[in-house]
Write a structure and sequence with these properties.
The protein contains nine helices and 14 strands. The strands form two sheets. An eight-stranded mixed beta sheet has the order 8-9-10-7-11-12-13-14, covered by helices on one side. Strands 3-2-1-4-5-6 form a six-stranded parallel beta sheet, with helices on both faces. The structure holds NADP nicotinamide-adenine-dinucleotide phosphate. The site of NADP nicotinamide-adenine-dinucleotide phosphate has 20 residues, from helix 1.
């Protein structure tokens, strides 16, 4: 039986660096190889993080027989192609969010993983953070009663650059897919699939949403308001309001270090969290544990969740007629 998982990283951009740092704090895991479009870039990344093997192409990384699992850190538009490359080569995959550009691509990825009997998971790191686990625990304990409303936002002022991944339509730009996915994720996690969605977006000069807002309505009397933007620093909080109290997950709520539980009886408690590293260690530990147990999906973030998530993103986008090639 395997006791150690050898990781490969595909792509050497910003998130790949953060993930490499987090991975150093994961038990039973080794950062074994990196793949980049250029050998020079792969070498630089490998030297920085002390990685024994550096490849100048993604295909070479995928074909290294010693690699167990590959973390895909390329721009959204390449997620499906790179996931399929790795699965085809017999590797388990952890692929950055959004899982792909649309439900059709996600279905193809899931189909391939099942065909090859390989592990696959979306890298929705927030799902695995202690704050979110605690939030679920508090809600199940009944301290805030039945959830009635959720307010969740994610916004920052990005330097406008039409070529940059965030604004560039060819690279899957737009606030919904990049950061709006977090409010959609937490609402889906806590309330499930909505019965009605109303949304609107401000489409910028590059043809992608610079700002967007959505309302999810549920036939059982629940409602959520969600928003994202690249044009302003918003509170970036999530507030979950129930019949008996509320939970406020403070800024930046997708990677929070504290939350406040306020109950209708007047009590209020701040709850603090420490991370072992930068927070990416939790998702990497989950994947490592799943692989060591021979699982093909994470029980905490099953593929059915990612299918629902992408279908919500598709529905919202379709309301603004925003289509990617
Ligand atoms: N979970 C999180 O907290 C989080 C945070 C930020 C981003 N992300 C996700 O991670 C993904 C990457 O984001 P990032 O901010 O790391 O992007 P980035 O800094 O632009 O890096 C992307 C990397 O992808 C590779 N790549 C392959 N084809 C490319 C192309 N045509 N143009 C540009 N890069 C290409 C490049 O690596 P090589 O040159 O080495 O091939 C590049 O360094 C996105 O899908 C994003 O949603 C997640």
């Amino acid at each position: 039986m395997k006791t150690n998982i050898q990781w490969g990283i595909l792509g050497t951009g910003r998130i790949a660096e953060k993930f490499a740092i987090g991975l150093q704090h994961v038990a039973n895991a080794q950062l074994y190889a990196v793949g980049s479009r250029s050998k020079e870039q792969a070498n630089l990344f490998a030297n920085k993080f002390n990685i024994p093997h550096a490849y100048g192409s993604y295909a070479e990384l995928a074909s290294d027989p010693q690699v167990d699992v590959i973390y895909i850190a390329s721009p959204h538009v390449f997620h499906a192609e790179h996931t399929l490359l790795c699965l085809e080569s017999g590797k388990a995959v952890l692929c950055e969010k959004p899982f792909a550009m649309n439900a059709r691509q996600v279905n193809e990825m899931i189909k391939k993983a099942r065909e090859k009997n390989l592990f696959l998971m979306e890298a929705l790191w927030t799902r695995f953070l202690p704050t979110i686990r605690k939030t679920e625990e508090l809600i199940s304990s009944g301290v805030i009663g039945d959830i009635i409303q959720i307010q969740s936002d994610f916004g920052f002022k990005a330097e406008y650059d039409p070529q940059w991944r965030l604004f560039n339509k060819k690279l899957g730009g737009g606030s919904l897919l990049d950061i709006g996915i977090y409010p959609v994720f937490i609402t889906l996690l806590l309330l499930g699939m909505p019965d009605e969605i109303v949304s609107s977006a401000v489409i910028g000069p590059t043809g992608v949403d610079e700002s967007m807002a959505a309302v999810f309505k549920y036939n059982n009397g629940k409602i959520a308001s969600l928003s994202s933007t690249f044009m302003a620093h918003t509170p970036t909080e999530t507030i979950i309001c129930g019949t008996e109290g509320r939970i406020r997950i403070h800024r930046m709520w997708h990677t929070p270090t504290y939350m406040t539980l306020t109950q209708n009886n007047g009590t209020s408690e701040d709850i603090y969290f420490d991370y072992a590293s930068n927070g990416y260690e939790y998702e990497a530990q989950e994947v490592t544990n799943c692989l060591l147990q021979g699982l093909k999906e994470s029980p905490l973030l099953p593929l059915s969740f990612s299918e629902k998530l992408i279908s919500l993103l598709d529905t919202i986008r379709q309301q603004w007629n925003l289509e990617y090639e």
